[in-house]
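Researcher: I need the complex structure. Ligand is adenosine-5'-triphosphate. Inputs:
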Amino acid sequence: MPSVIVNNITKQYGKKKDLVQALKGVSFEVQQGELFGIIGPDGAGKTSLFRILTTLLLPDGGTASVDGLDVVKDFKAIRHRVGYMPGRFSLYQDLTIEENLEFFATIFNTTVKDNYDLIKEIYSQIEPFKNRRAGKLSGGMKQKLALSCALIHKPSVLFLDEPTTGVDAVSRKEFWEMLRSLKRQGITILVSTPYMDEAGMCDRVALMQNGEVLSVDSPEGVIDAFKQPLVAVKDNNMLQLLNDLQRYEGVKDAYPFGEYHHVVLNNGFSASAVQQYLQQHNYHQPEVKTIRADIEDCFIALMKSA
Ligand SMILES: Nc1ncnc2c1ncn2[C@@H]1O[C@H](COP(=O)(O)OP(=O)(O)OP(=O)(O)O)[C@@H](O)[C@H]1O
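Model: Output:
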């Protein structure tokens, strides 16, 4: 049985001209023990979805279950089984590290000692500072404490809403390693992120935009589904280059991507055709190379075709 089933969930906020359709019929399943990423920009609907799955918000339509329990009817039972780390830190700033952890253990009727094994690897990194108030911790330390608090009642499903937003690159990498290690302990993990490069750390991802799921697949599957030829192009005047590329009949789409422009070509066109076209337009030595799409290219293509 899948650990999480989301079936045609809808959610809207406001009325009439202020109406926002935050979730427009979202469906997917997450298998037991999977590390599942929900990837999408701000406003995609990630938080609304997590709040519904953790029973903090009622959906307007559709059904969803966690561990076989219905998010509306069985909300009390679900609350004992899920761990939730909301986007904005859930910690009590005036309590110390140790007090925060004890507080979360107490509200779930358990003790830190009973469940120490599960959090040991994460908590031991901040334990030397256990008397420091949460408000005085760095972003990376807060993140570790919040994760420890979300785990202290041994949840079977863990929901992490943008846990790496605003955290430095080293802490982000460390955090994903912690998640891989939690996964090895059999916990199902759903994690949302606006960072496309984190997709590769997940077993499967759902790409979301404007309340819709555009694709659900493994990171490799998302990339393999990108069938158009793709080239990276660079020259001195990047702005002019982009304009000229967009005018070329062989170009389906062109957009800035780091120090290059990525150019999606229509079938039948290739890097050498782009090279030729640019030379005809007075570019002397443009750099044009065929590349493999990454998740961000796939996301851009999916967004445009949606
Ligand atoms: N309480 C609310 N009242 C009105 N609109 C809301 C409310 N909560 C969310 N929204 C709107 O619903 C849409 C989806 O928001 P949601 O927070 O679920 O997305 P998100 O992907 O988590 O983005 P973010 O990272 O910005 O929170 C957005 O347009 C947001 O402005």
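Model: Summary of the prediction. The first strand starts at residue 4 and ends at 13.
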